[in-house]
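Predict structure. Input: Site-specific integrase, 489 residues.
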Amino acid sequence: MTNKNNLKIAIKGISLGGSDEVATIKSSLFIYSNYQVNWFATDYVLSALVPEKSKEMTAGRVRYFLNFLDSYEQLDGDHTDNTVPLGLVTDAHLRAYVKYIETDLGLNRNAIVLKVRTALNLLKFIQDNYYLDYLLISISDTDGKFYQKGLVNAEWRVSSYAGKYLAHQCIPHSEDYPTRDPITEDAIESLLDDLDNFEDENSVKDTEYKHALLAMLIDLLEKTGVRVSEAANINSHTVELLRAQELALMSGRAMDVDELIKSEQSGVTVRDIQAAEAIYRNSKLITKGTSCIWIKIQTTKGKNKNSQRLIPIPRPTAKRIISFYDTYIVGERDRVNKGRSRVKREQYKKLFVHASTHQPMRGTDISKLYYEVFSRNNKSPHRRFPHLFRHRFITILVYEQLRQLNRTMGTQFLAKLVLKRIQNLTGHASIETMMNYVKIAEGMLEKELRANEDEVFGLEAREILVSKLGEEAVIKIEAEVRNSKLDKS
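Output follows.
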């Protein structure tokens, strides 16, 4: 049996005044998260509407939704830090909720669908079981007809797989929503261009600090594939570990692997470290000949939550992290140079400190700053969610492993072999959740193989021919060779 105490969802309430029973019931609907039990959410999870086997998972999704409402941020336009009462959720909030999930989990449509449907079912439960003098959620019939509009407007849909279920316009269409596709090179270039433009802005408060933080963040996400919430956990101890390795390299010796493992008590073996470094060095994440430095990351998701993992990063990335910490967290150069008083950023021993509140940044705070600079002020045709850097990191590692095998996978066994090799770098508890990366990498490899088949001359030979004959003449020769191959085939 499920432990019902584990299903209580913590919330704090506010009083709207009034002494009669109706006022009390209405008052208790308008509650926020933390400290007290949200009995509306808890009643829903404990109700017969939620199967016994699904209660803990549903409780997690409900809690996730309430956390969003507690620190509501409007990602399209001016943001607000106001908490949204559960009884005042609207269509606009659900659209923002989808972007919130994207920020946290990336382009994972299944996660979005499940979380939004749970939120809709919770609102419907409140509408059906408690006295309201307004329509919190209106649901159209299967023909899409509404008899009355509510704050939230959903619709019934029917499928052979799911039966009758609630849907909402905020849920993205599957055909327009690729899952786990990595951020593209063009998207990264557009981020860096926008960051350069941001550096030139004098109207934005704390421009220098925010620019340095975001530049370091992009480098960190690209080279490590960490989640934003994991980046937020990086502390001064991790920075000092990077510094110790950098000083060792400067003195002409790299930190011994055994010494590194013992000092961090990470639970990994020398063999794990050596295998991870070999995989990383064979990818395009690091320039050939560049030294590796190890960064300690605390996993924040899944069954491996709170466990530590060591990830190799290029030496320049490590030096950038150290420099940012020394210059802006310890030295507070941006404030000192402008004659502003120090705010003691160093006291929290964290890498990421908020520019305005001067408190340690949570993952949501980092994402909010990211969106303020790259979404609100700079519209782009590219998908640039911070979590897409993680998809890129994993896809690159899988792709390089496939290339070494010189084949596309073809079998589940080989796919799992590849994923097992990189699992220690990604923090995934199960390789089953990583299978989609194999499909993406296979597609990339097949595309490369087709391109190589179409290649008439090698790159070096082609450059020599172009220098002697000219581009147009070489293109004509290439066309003749391809046509000849087609005729023979």
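The longest helix spans residues 109-129.
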